[in-house]
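Holo prediction. Input below; ligand is fe (ii) ion.
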Amino acid sequence: MLLISDLDETRSIDPEECLALANEYIRENSVDAIWENSWILRALANNRTFLLERYHERLKSYWSGDEKDKFQPQSLELARGNQFYIRSNIWMPLDAASRTLEFEQKLFAYNIPHDHNFQLLTVGYYGPGYPTEIYEYDSDCVTGEIGEKVDLSDKVDTILTPGRMIFYRQNKDIHIQHTPPEMSVSLNLSVADTNTDLLPQYIFDVDEHAIVGGAGDLHSNRLFLLDLFRTINDANTVEILSDFVRHFDCTRTRVTAFQVLQDIEPDACIPLLAKTDIGSIPYLSKQLARGNTAREYSRF
Ligand SMILES: [Fe+2]
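Structure of the complex:
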């Protein structure tokens, strides 16, 4: 069931207090633990003064050359700890006639059905808020191949109005953000899960109920980089890829490394098939049976 609420909360806190309370009350990275304590982010949204000050500081840091935040300019880090981080996001209405429309749509990820590979609790803070469509899917039932069909729940439409909270659960909720009618700001509390780098994040076609690509996450980027070695490689590449096949924690990355090896040094695959479990990984064994070495996993 989708998690959307208009919680009544009167406390008002700043980002550092928000982070401290998250550390104190959210004792595990679970949907229940986060949702039960969602009042913490709601209380931050009651603080109507801190955000403008933070944006002033950011503007001044651009001037002084101190700006080190490498995230997209629409997103500002407010507090960060080992387990959680808090960010604000600006959502701009787009001018359909703008020459930079395509760039801006990508920047704001408007109209792109995607999931997140981390738990993301968000609250509307300012402006009318972005409209969003949300679906649920079961990531345990997908392998991540492009064109793979995915069972989606019925669509829910909502708007991230001020004070409304939406929980985009890790690899469970797919959402499409649409352009808000006026500039809007949201606040996010996200889990800094070390496992995130091993999890995919997908782009979907919700009309076709299918995966159409990876969402530019570290997982997709890693697969993207592995493809480079099909063209540029030396003996060291073979060693590194073989190590990935033997030891890396992410199955899809291991499979892709193996597929690249099949193209550039097929002899190196023989001991890997004999001494590791790589040949029995379901999506690879299907491909081996077809004699196909091309990567079929999602890419952005
Ligand atoms: Fe999103």
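The mean pLDDT is 87. That is the main takeaway for now.
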